[in-house]
Design goal:
This is ABC transporter ATP-binding protein. One of its GO terms (molecular function) is ATP hydrolysis activity. Pfam families: ABC_tran (PF00005), TOBE_2 (PF08402). The chain folds into two domains: 225 residues, P-loop containing nucleotide triphosphate hydrolases (Rossmann fold, 3-Layer(aba) Sandwich), CATH 3.40.50.300; 79 residues, Nucleic acid-binding proteins (OB fold (Dihydrolipoamide Acetyltransferase, E2P)), CATH 2.40.50. Helices cover 25% and strands 35% of the residues. The protein is an alpha+beta fold and 317 residues long. It has a six-stranded mixed sheet, sandwiched between helices. Strands 2-1-4-5 form a four-stranded antiparallel sheet, covered by helices on one side. Strands 15-14-13-16 form a four-stranded antiparallel sheet, with no helix packed on it. The protein has eight helices and 17 strands.
Length: 317
Amino acid sequence: MSVELRSVTKQYDKLKALDQINLKIEKGEFFVILGPSGSGKTTLLRAVAGLERVDSGNILLEGRDVTEVPPHKREVAMVFQNYALYPHKTVLENIVMPVENQLDKREILRRVEELSSRLKIDALLGRYPSELSGGQQQRAALARALIKRPRVFLMDEPLSNLDAIQRISARKLIREVQRENNVTTLYVTHDQIEAMALADRVAVMNNGKIIQVGTPEEVYSNAESEFVASFFGNPPTSIIDGKIVGLEGKIGVRPEDVEIGDGDLKGQITDVEFWGDRYLVYVYFADEEIRAFHHKRLKIGQEIRFKFKKISGPWNS
């Protein structure tokens, strides 16, 4: 099912949470909405779910205007940041809640068996949420959302309560489940790594507006604004004065686009971080600081020569 937002606006007092949002998500696409806290990304997701009324504009699902349609009639399912599992119900009872009055018992049990096996929670069905780890709770929440066989899957920072190792396996699971079911997915996060790992396409949001849309590769390599360049990617782009290379305005340089050991620019190493297969080097020059990757550990205080292989911009404030 395709999802489309046409000139959608939502305002709280003087704050525009959504400012003329125009967006088209294709059927079966894994679409990530990325932005800092307060950018409007969760409001956008809740508007698609029908949990938030918009002030103006239209929301369409598969070409049908659902702007005034209640949530339970939109064929969407949502996984919340805190999973929203009922503590007094078992995992099984939580999973079947969305369909217990809509399907016969045999079909419900068949779906539970299928999902619990796929998500590796079949041994946990009799437990309560308080008896589960964060990763297990997340899998239970996924099963509850998928049992309805929704045509649109909405996910609001579902990995934020997991540790770094759990996040990696959970990302893989979510992508596999999405591919297997070919369900259109809108996924909200502030984590650039999640966005790059999961998205077919990503929309970067800030201050209630869509700043840039593209594949992760497009947004990473061709940032259209200083905000996108500095926000998208880890480590972030170094933003410096373009006058250094004869340009007006600000320019961006990714760490991998700085070549140390040759070039016309000179700087001094101020810090070095070990990143496993390489080092992240901080270089101070011309009253600016940039980050660069290098294959060897350089000494703090060492003078180096370098050049830029590629830059983004320039952008004028």
